[in-house]
């Protein structure tokens, strides 16, 4: 193999005239077959791979990045490769990207200086919605973006040139409000995780808190700051938010009260010293331009125009760790001191002396408004800077967009053998002996000390089903967090889904109280990853229909959209007697006369007056689904449950009862006021308990 790296050319006259886009590329060439097996390209038509923004997917498997050339890239974090790229949708630099919650990590939105906010679908890899601000003269330049974390329907974008916040509905694409009040560019906007509240900060030294249901001119509170606000972030529980300002301070405030919470973080000294070409002072840019809370809210990672990234403990306001992101000496601002080689006889710094032209006798000056680098300068030195930083939802990593590209830091590594509390008594022979003598708890403990997945899997799957609870109770709390992380891997690598779910259930039953009283980052991360894995598995199982087969391990599996007619004919041909005796053919015959194929309530967007359920578990799921949707006109829907056993006789009786109940409710002229009395009367008549609640649609 031959690896070839290319960088942009100087941009000659032919390139400019013919709009040739030079870019950085890495190509791995297989010389025997004379073909390349890998091709990865960088960002920008300029001299650096300058990334502007990034966002993690909810399951932390994908990373979306945006660059100054208007391109959006989708990265697979497990392989480290770019899997897709959107090149033509934006015509200007991409300034912010966000994933839409509740869409299984398949929908994200981006904003750009070209005046558009675009929504993308990762199932079909296409742009399906374009949002723009109405303008008669010039388009709004968007520099900040936020997505509603409750329903995922509201999209907010802050403007650089209009000083306003634009609010759209993602479903309809309509512009809902234009929030006015800021007197300078809106540098950051964030939605509260648990309420319909929007937080915004601006270069006008204010933070504004907006209630979305009160209208465009109703700011709930205005918080005055001591300096220009550059970035804002809200803790995951929604009780606290922080603001980074131009004077190098990160201040913390109560989300409900708006009061400042103690002292802030003074980060000027943590960012280190930086010498810039042509600058007289070295602390001019010592401030945090981006930061992010960790998922548990205990830590905060921050960066700016510096080669350092800082991690702070939020409670103690102390620096925990500092990373140096680059060793590239060609970047402006990397050096902390003046090199002696550039010092002249009388102490002058050569980098700060502008050589005058003999003929015109004037010194070249930087273009006005240039903050990153002066591209008009013949000797261009890109400035080292971090434009955005994000914590992973699993808290196992964080990523940053910088002048050098995207940098990804993770506590996970590829080491297969990483022992834990090993001593001389823990050997492979003793482990095998415990397995053979059925000492399952000791064998599992030794496998966890080896920290080897193959041994852990072997010990887990040797433990009988009825002894899982006892074995889980013998584990220490540190080993519980370790085992939860391995169980997350087990769901992906084995087919014993129910067996591993039983392990997770037993661990939570035995150790939930201890884990809650003594929380740790490892346990919290493992539980979040397990939750996401089980959610993904649940979604995969929801795509199939499983019917009983000739044996317990040989079910009949069909795709969810398979018509009942096809299922009926298939089972009829396989074994008519068997499926007639167990009632499957009768059930399919009944279903095919009612509807074409199985349907999901989650995908139905029709409006209802009343919804009936026949099982309390289904009732809870329907209520949860209706509450998770964004109401359109806030019309009421009554959800009623009447327990019906899942057999033919009870189903017939239950259907008649629900028909009678529906007829009784249909006769009411004011259902919202009369329904309580009608349900109480009906409950007494049938002598069955009823459940009832109201939702909005």
State the main characteristics.
697 residues, alpha+beta, Methylamine Dehydrogenase, Chain H, Serine Threonine Protein Phosphatase 5, Tetratricopeptide repeat, 4 domains, 4-stranded antiparallel β-sheet, globular, WD40_rpt, nucleus, coiled coil, RNA_pol_II_suA, protein serine/threonine phosphatase activity
Task: Please provide a brief summary of the model.
Pfam families: Ssu72, WD40. By secondary structure, the chain is α+β, with helices and mostly antiparallel strands. Helix content is 25%, strand content 30%.
Number of domains: 4
Spatial extent as radius of gyration: 31 Å
Strand order of the largest sheet: 4-5-6-7
Overall mean confidence score, pLDDT: 81
SSE layout:
Layout: E1 2-6, H1 13-17, E2 25-30, E3 35-41, E4 51-56, E5 62-67, E6 72-76, E7 81-86, E8 94-99, E9 107-112, E10 116-121, E11 126-132, E12 142-147, E13 154-159, E14 165-169, E15 175-179, E16 186-191, E17 197-202, E18 206-211, E19 219-224, E20 229-234, E21 240-245, E22 249-254, E23 265-266, E24 288-293, E25 299-304, E26 308-313, E27 318-324, E28 386-391, E29 397-402, E30 405-410, H2 428-436, H3 440-450, H4 453-462, H5 468-473, H6 477-493, H7 497-517, H8 521-541, E31 544-551, E32 554-559, H9 564-574, H10 576-581, H11 584-592, E33 610-613, H12 616-628, E34 636-642, H13 648-666, H14 671-686, E35 690-696
Parallel strand pairs: 33-34
Antiparallel strand pairs: 1-2, 2-3, 4-5, 5-6, 6-7, 8-9, 9-10, 10-11, 12-13, 13-14, 14-15, 16-17, 17-18, 18-19, 20-21, 21-22, 22-23, 24-25, 25-26, 26-27, 28-29, 29-30, 31-32, 34-35
């Amino acid at each position: 193999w031959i690896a070839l790296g290319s960088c942009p050319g100087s941009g000659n006259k032919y390139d400019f005239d013919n709009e040739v886009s030079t870019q950085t590329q890495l190509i791995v060439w297989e010389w025997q077959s004379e073909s390349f097996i890998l091709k990865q390209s960088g960002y920008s038509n300029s001299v650096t791979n300058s990334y502007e923004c990034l966002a993690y997917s909810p399951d932390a498997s994908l990373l979306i990045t945006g660059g100054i050339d208007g391109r959006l890239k989708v990265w697979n974090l497990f392989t480290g490769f770019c899997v897709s790229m959107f090149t033509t949708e934006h015509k200007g630099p991409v300034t912010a990207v966000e994933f839409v919650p509740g869409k299984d990590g398949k929908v994200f939105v981006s904003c750009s200086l070209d005046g558009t906010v675009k929504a993308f679908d990762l199932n079909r890899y296409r742009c399906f919605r374009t949002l723009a601000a109405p303008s008669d003269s010039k388009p709004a330049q968007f520099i900040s973006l936020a997505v509603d974390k409750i329903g995922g329907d509201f999209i907010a974008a802050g403007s650089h040139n209009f000083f306003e916040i634009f609010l759209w509905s993602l479903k309809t694409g309509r512009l809902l409000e234009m929030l006015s009040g800021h007197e300078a560019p809106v540098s950051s906007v964030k939605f509260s995780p648990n309420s319909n509240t929007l937080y915004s900060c601006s270069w006008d030294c204010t933070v504004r808190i907006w209630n979305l249901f009160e209208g465009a001119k109703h700011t709930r509170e205005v918080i005055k700051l001591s300096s220009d606000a550059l970035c804002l972030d809200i803790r995951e529980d929604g009780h606290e938010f922080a603001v980074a300002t131009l004077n190098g301070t990160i201040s913390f405030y109560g989300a409900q009260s708006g009061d400042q919470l103690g002292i802030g973080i003074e980060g000027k000294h943590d960012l280190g010293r930086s010498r810039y070409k042509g600058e007289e002072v070295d602390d001019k840019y010592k401030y945090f331009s981006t930061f992010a809370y960790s998922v548990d809210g205990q830590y905060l990672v921050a960066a700016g125009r510096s080669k350092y990234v800082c991690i702070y403990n939020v409670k103690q306001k102390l620096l925990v760790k500092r990373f140096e992101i680059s060793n590239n000496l060609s970047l402006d601002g990397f050096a902390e001191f003046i090199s002696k080689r550039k010092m002249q006889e009388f102490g002058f710094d050569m980098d700060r002396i502008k050589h005058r032209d003999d003929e015109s006798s004037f010194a070249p000056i930087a273009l006005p408004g240039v903050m990153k680098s002066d591209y008009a300068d013949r000797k261009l030195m890109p400035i080292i800077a971090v434009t955005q930083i994000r914590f992973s939802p699993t808290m196992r990593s964080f990523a940053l967009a910088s002048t050098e590209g995207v940098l990804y830091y993770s506590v996970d590594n590829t080491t297969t053998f990483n022992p834990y509390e090993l001593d001389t008594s823990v050997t492979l022979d003793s482990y095998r002996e415990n397995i053979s003598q059925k000492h399952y708890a000791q064998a599992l403990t030794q496998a966890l000390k080896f920290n080897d997945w193959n041994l852990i899997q072997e010990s887990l799957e040797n433990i009988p089903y009825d002894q899982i609870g006892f074995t889980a109770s013998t584990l220490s709390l540190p080993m519980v967090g370790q085992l939860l992380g391995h169980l997350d891997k087990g769901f992906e690598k084995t087919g014993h889904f129910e067996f591993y779910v039983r392990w997770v259930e037993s661990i939570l039953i035995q150790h939930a109280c201890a884990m809650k009283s003594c929380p740790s980052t490892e346990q919290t991360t493992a539980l979040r990853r397990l939750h996401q894995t089980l959610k993904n598995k649940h979604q995969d199982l929801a795509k199939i229909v499983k019917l009983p087969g000739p044996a317990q391990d040989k079910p009949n599996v069909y795709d969810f959209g398979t018509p009942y007619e096809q299922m009926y004919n298939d089972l009829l041909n396989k074994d008519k007697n068997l499926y007639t005796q167990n009632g499957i053919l009768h059930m399919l015959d009944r279903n095919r006369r009612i509807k074409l194929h199985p349907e999901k309530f989650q995908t139905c967007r029709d409006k209802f007056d009343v919804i009936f359920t026949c099982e309390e578990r289904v009732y809870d799921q329907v209520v949860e689904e209706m509450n998770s949707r964004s109401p359109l006109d806030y019309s009421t829907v009554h959800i009623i449950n009447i327990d019906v056993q899942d057999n033919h006789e009870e189903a017939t009786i239950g259907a008649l009862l629900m028909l009678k109940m529906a007829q009784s409710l249909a006769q009411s002229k004011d259902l919202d006021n009369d329904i309580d009395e009608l349900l109480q009367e009906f409950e007494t008549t049938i002598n069955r308990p009823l459940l009832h609640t109201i939702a909005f649609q």
